């Protein structure tokens, strides 16, 4: 979701003059996007690997893993290496690394397509059409790469000694075979899509507000002339990073309930509560009178037997 908001808020690629023997502006523009794609992918891999321990702990706590549910964030960060070794903090990170590049490629291509369609078909321009195109591109990328996110979460939730999956390929095969084919990879997709709209909107709005307020009240302290147009002020790099972090934190907090719902749905079949729901027993009391005596019979029926009994 953060990538979608960042793509919507990003400035368009600069116009590059044609140079002799350079292949023309089209080739230069294609090179710009390729360079941006590779740089963004590598930066994404580095960033995700850096925060992978926190992400693993978040998955464990969101889904109430019975080994760590009584702990806080910092306590869990200490407990995971003690129980599973330091590599335990990086469970599921391999699937995330695989997901980053196709996610970025799909997002870039979809963003350009949606931006063109929104501009030509709907006549919407400016920041609004970039926000809409960025959100739609993010949704498209999420849908296309969602199975990898599902596998990543399943691997991250596993605890040493209680492995259901031995690796990425085994997780794909197991989920496909036991959870309804391809539909099994899309558990929790709806709260993911629903959470992207408020996240992108709040992030974009907050960042724009912080930027405009900062440049209007402290232009010399927070701003610098743009490299493309010296008459236009833009935020300094570290201020831009700070505003983006604040905007992302606020947006993530507002959309966090959707994230918790998504994780619980993704892990539904491996949570202890799932078996409890399937095998939940109700006590059916049959009461009748035989002469002067009251007879009561208790029988435990699970939900499937109750449904069959009601239908019959």
UniProtKB/TrEMBL annotation:
InterPro entries: GDC-like (IPR002167), MCP (IPR002067), MCP_dom_sf (IPR023395), MCP_transmembrane (IPR018108). Solcar repeats lie at residues 31-117, 125-213. The keyword Protein transport does not apply. GO terms for biological process: transmembrane transport. It comes from Acinonyx jubatus. It is found in: Mitochondrion inner membrane. It comes from the Eukaryota. One of its GO terms (cellular component) is mitochondrial inner membrane. This is Solute carrier family 25 member 16. Belongs to the mitochondrial carrier (TC 2.A.29) family. It is a multi-pass membrane protein. PROSITE patterns: SOLCAR. Keywords: Membrane, Mitochondrion, Mitochondrion inner membrane, Repeat, Transmembrane, Transport. Signal peptide: none annotated.
């Amino acid at each position: 979701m953060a990538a979608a908001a960042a793509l919507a808020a990003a400035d368009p690629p600069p116009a590059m003059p044609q140079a002799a023997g350079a292949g023309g502006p089209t080739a230069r523009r294609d090179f710009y996007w390729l360079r941006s794609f590779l740089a963004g992918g590598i930066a994404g891999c580095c960033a995700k690997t850096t925060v992978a321990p926190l992400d693993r702990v978040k998955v464990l706590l969101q889904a109430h893993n019975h080994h760590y549910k009584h702990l806080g964030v910092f306590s869990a960060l200490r407990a995971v290496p003690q129980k599973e070794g330091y590599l335990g903090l990086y469970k599921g990170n391999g699937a995330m690394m695989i997901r980053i590049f196709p996610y970025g490629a799909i997002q870039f291509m979809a963003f350009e397509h949606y931006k063109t369609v929104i501009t030509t078909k709907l006549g919407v321009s400016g920041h609004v059409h970039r926000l809409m195109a960025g959100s739609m591109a993010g949704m498209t990328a999420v849908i296309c790469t969602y199975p990898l996110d599902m596998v990543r979460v399943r691997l991250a939730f596993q605890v040493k000694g209680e492995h259901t999956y031995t690796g990425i390929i085994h997780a794909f095969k197991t989920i496909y075979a036991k959870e309804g084919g391809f539909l099994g990879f899309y558990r929790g997709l709806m709260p993911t899509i629903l959470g992207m709209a408020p996240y992108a909107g709040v992030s974009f709005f907050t960042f724009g507000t912080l930027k405009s307020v900062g440049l209007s009240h402290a232009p010399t302290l927070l701003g610098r002339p743009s490299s493309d147009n010296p008459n236009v002020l833009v935020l300094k790099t570290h201020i831009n990073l700070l505003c983006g972090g604040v905007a992302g934190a606020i947006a993530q907090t507002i959309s966090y309930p959707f994230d918790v719902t998504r994780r619980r749905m993704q892990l539904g079949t491996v949570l202890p509560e799932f078996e409890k729901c399937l095998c939940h027993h109700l006590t059916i009391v049959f009461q009748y009178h035989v002469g002067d005596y009251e007879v009561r019979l208790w029988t435990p029926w699970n939900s499937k037997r109750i449904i069959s009994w009601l239908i019959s």
